[in-house]
Amino acid sequence: MSANTFHLSRAVRALHDGGVIAYPTEAVWGLGCDPFNDVAALRLLALKQRDWRKGMILVAADIAQLTPFLYGLEAQHLQTLKASWPGPNTWLLPNNGAAPDWVTGGRETLAVRVSNHPTVAALCNAFGGPVVSTSANPAGKPPARSALAVRRYFDTQLDDILPGKLGGQRNPTRIRFLLSGEVARHA
Asked: Three-class SS of residue 92?
């Protein structure tokens, strides 16, 4: 078993066991968990000191992993998603009820992204679906840009830190509303 396979297996095991992990993304380090595990999601939010009503992003390796959340979208909107992914584009979809409230923040939208970051894609593929992706930092602090910064913020509170390098982006991904195209967060 290679070092990368070992680390990936350990991270996936932590996710399946209800753990919270850190991993590199396109621009900053992220915290993740199984989006359907309420205990893990609430623990992640507590670590970040983040209000659950802000919602969280689901990141996937390919659009097929997001299928349950795409039901009800018109063909033109699906085409918009397909044309923008994989890549650093986060979209706010109409919440069709497939995602838990702790992920959507009880909002009428759900944030999703199909990442082209190799570590994120490998993690989602090995896990077998999307994972929560939110910046690795306590509320009010700058996002971690290194594994060392993740450790400084969270010390031993995480179940795993998946090694890897950040992607080439300077800023976190842009977030847009799928139906209107309106920008909710600039990159």
From this structure: strand
d(CA 41, CA 184): 23
Residue-wise pLDDT tens digits, 167-178:
988 888 889 999
Would you say the pTM of this structure is higher than 0.90? yes
Q: Do the Cβ atoms of 40 and 20 come closer than 8 Å? A: yes
Q: What is the CATH number of the domain that holds 99?
A: 3.90.870.10
Domains in the chain, number? 1
CA-closest candidate to residue 40, choices 158, 165, 168, 186 = 158
For residue 119, the enclosing domain spans: 3-185
Rounded CA separation 126/87 (Å): 19
CA within 13 Å, CB half, 92:
19
DSSP state at residue 54 = G
